[in-house]
């Protein structure tokens, strides 16, 4: 089972399209690419395993596992990457700018509804992050 995140990089944020088994679930926003620096950069392109996780702040959400030199990379609601994210990925319903979107909570629920049933049955879900084009723009 594969979640594919196709990114487009901008100076003030990273925008993406998230698909699950070939079907688009939502758009995404992240921090801009800053060489994988903790709390100020999106994570590197690559293949990661996803797991279901609970916290008091975000309740049930998804965690991206085994990110080199990083931890606690989550999928959680946010509408402005620079103001609300520390390296995590926010599902959104609609892009409204570089690293900005709207109706994140709705997109987050859609993502959970798509992925949680498979995780709960023991399926392994891989997140494949790749550039929508060929290279990073910054």
TrEMBL record:
It comes from the Bacteria. Residues 5-115 form the DUF5675 domain. This is DUF5675 family protein. It comes from Chryseobacterium oryctis.
